[in-house]
Amino acid sequence: MSIPDTTLASAKALVAPVLDDTSRAQIRAERMSAFVRYTLLITVGFLMLYPLLWLVGASFKTNSEIFGSIGFIPQEPTLDGYRKGWETSTPYTFGRFFWNTFLIILPKTIFTAISCALVAYGFARFEFPYKKLLFASLIATLLLPNVVTRIPQYILFRDLGWLDTYLPLWVPSAFAGDAFFVFMLVQFLRAIPRDMEEAARVDGANSLQTLIYIVVPMLMPALISVALFQFMWTMNDFLGPLIYLSSVQSFPVSLALKLSIDTTEAFDWNRILAMSVLALLPALIVFFMAQRYFIEGISTGGVKG
Amino acid sequence: MARLQIRNLEKTYTNTFKAVHGINLDVADGEFMVLVGPSGCAKSTTLRMIAGLESISGGEVVIGDRVVNRLQPGERGIAMVFQNYALYPHMKVRKNLSFGLRLQRAPKAEIERKTAEVARILEIEPLLDRLPKELSGGQAQRVALGRALIKQPEVFLFDEPLSNLDAKLRASMRVRITDLHKRLKDQGMSSTVIYVTHDQTEAMTMGDRICVMKDGHIMQVADPKTLYDRPANAFVAGFIGSPEMNLIAGRLDGNSFHLGAQSLVLPDELMARLRANSGSVTLGIRPQHLRVNTADGLRAVVAGAEFMGHEVVLHLDVEGERVVAVLPAADYADLDRGTTVTLTPDPGQAHVFDQSGGNISLSTSQ
Ligand SMILES: Nc1ncnc2c1ncn2[C@@H]1O[C@H](COP(=O)(O)OP(=O)(O)OP(=O)(O)O)[C@@H](O)[C@H]1O
Ligand SMILES: [Mg+2]
């Protein structure tokens, strides 16, 4: 329902004198149905958000209260969970793990955006031998279950001597290893008319200059989504670090959270929950920051004509 | 010096469709050449091959004295204006204009001077700090024009630049472009233009010469007057002029033209031009060159009349064929539907085409 209230009100004022009983009943029925709709939406929304609210609430509870009460509002709010959780049971603070995550995410996101844009540009705009075959195999890798390649990949990286480094985690992405992103960008590029690129070529730009000065700016909304997805997936990736990283000092956040469960006998749930809340924050912040550019990008990227 | 020559130019698309069939065209330095033809006749394909945006399957394109077949678009000394403006959507007008210069790393002062000059000529100074999406169609097209102008190319290429504008704006842009062309020419700057359009008004009013194309072939290249007065074939005759020339199929026998049960005695002047005097032919007469209600001639039945203010377009039926005549409104007395009138061509204005469409009534002396 997107009719502004004022319009509705003035419309009502106009028809008021001639309102008979049936139309009054109609308005009442409409209000009723709106009430039911919103109640339902709010209830379902609350149910969906409940685990998250509980998580945030529980992170401020004492360990005993977590299991003692059902409500999510802490009785005696305490920062204990955060203080102790941050220190961890290892020689490192949680700050270290955040930094590690950052060291993986940064190159991975940047190189994904660059490499996928290059490859997608190639597929979308150039003719070359075996293009169809190559594109088909790219799509085929999308359908390949991840598990299948785990072991060969592990052996490859072990032979390269890359175990317990971050290289296995981001180098594949730097060579457009994420077929999904390439596919997404190719689709996006196909929808952009070529006129601008042709104009740039007439203006004397070579293929790379056309890519950098013309295509990338128009592709920005899509590139931001790519970066956003890559950021979130990497932040949440548990299996990759688990397989390739063995020393605690290089653990990212996802592994470190698990670590606090492993090492203590009686789990301090409030510490784990507190750190989980912190682990959620970067993704949330980045998402809300990028959202603005995302929307802006779409509106300026729109092509007139 | 920027003469443009096209020699035996061919284009076969990857799907084996042959769009251009070995065309030859010679455009003089400073000439305004219009490529015109119905949709799908390969005007754009030809232009894009000249620009280097489409590969050349055969023949050569020569600009100045260089064969440019293997050169990149940026090295050919051309500038192009696209139908959809093709402005860079993320750059302000100022940056749109100077993009090419900035790529060449031209000095800052020079870029600023040229941008300002082009903006002044095209009256887009107030728009310099706007984004393309903040421009109207006409303004966007002026910016696109400016982007071509600032390069000072040897050859300007236009692909239907005005077809997205409304009729009024189109008329004023037409004048603006021709003025600009004259001005460049007067200043001794390179100003060779190839202008693609499917609008014959644009073609007739703008072109020094017009190249009429059909299905990847050139039908005729001539100045507007010649094209109108002496069309080389029935296609050009029908394509140029509005309303279309009447093309009436019939039989020629001696000095009379037979159509169904009727015959028309052709004027001596026409007979003198004619290269044949028997066989199946098509008689071509422009609506403006038909005389109505003469002493004798073809009998026609009035099927309708459109009053246009200064003239009347009369639709007539001659032996089942639709014929159109245009009369000055002053000469027009009400003719009801169903009235029978007689028609004769103006002397000196009729054409006869043979079965392959060639004009066999062009005297060589003219
Ligand atoms: N990429 C392509 N692959 C195959 N055939 C093509 C391609 N581009 C154009 N054609 C064909 O070539 C012919 C000429 O096309 P072109 O675009 O040059 O026509 P045009 O004269 O510019 O028409 P319009 O006035 O509609 O712009 C058309 O029959 C068209 O279908
Ligand atoms: Mg075209």
Automatic annotation (TrEMBL), chain A:
It comes from Roseinatronobacter alkalisoli. Residues 98-290 form the ABC transmembrane type-1 domain. The chain crosses the membrane at residues 34-56, 97-121, 133-157, 169-189, 210-232, 238-260, 272-295. This is Carbohydrate ABC transporter permease. It is a multi-pass membrane protein. It comes from the Bacteria. Keywords: Cell membrane, Membrane, Transmembrane, Transmembrane helix, Transport. Belongs to the binding-protein-dependent transport system permease family. PANTHER family: ABC TRANSPORTER PERMEASE PROTEIN MG189-RELATED-RELATED, ABC TRANSPORTER PERMEASE PROTEIN YESQ-RELATED. CDD domains: TM_PBP2 (cd06261). The keyword Thylakoid does not apply. It is found in: Cell membrane.
From TrEMBL, chain B:
It comes from Roseinatronobacter alkalisoli. Residues 346-366 are annotated as: Disordered. Gene3D superfamilies: 2.40.50.100, Nucleic acid-binding proteins, P-loop containing nucleotide triphosphate hydrolases. Pfam families: ABC_tran, TOBE_2. Residues 356-366 have a biased composition (Polar residues). This is Sn-glycerol-3-phosphate ABC transporter ATP-binding protein UgpC. GO terms for molecular function: ATP binding. Belongs to the ABC transporter superfamily. Keywords: ATP-binding, Nucleotide-binding, Transport. InterPro entries: AAA+_ATPase, ABC_transporter-like_ATP-bd, ABC_transporter-like_CS, ABC_transpr_MalK-like, ABC_transpr_MalK/UgpC-like, Mo/tungstate-bd_C_term_dom, NA-bd_OB-fold, P-loop_NTPase. It comes from the Bacteria. Residues 4-240 form the ABC transporter domain. NCBIfam families: PRK11650.1.
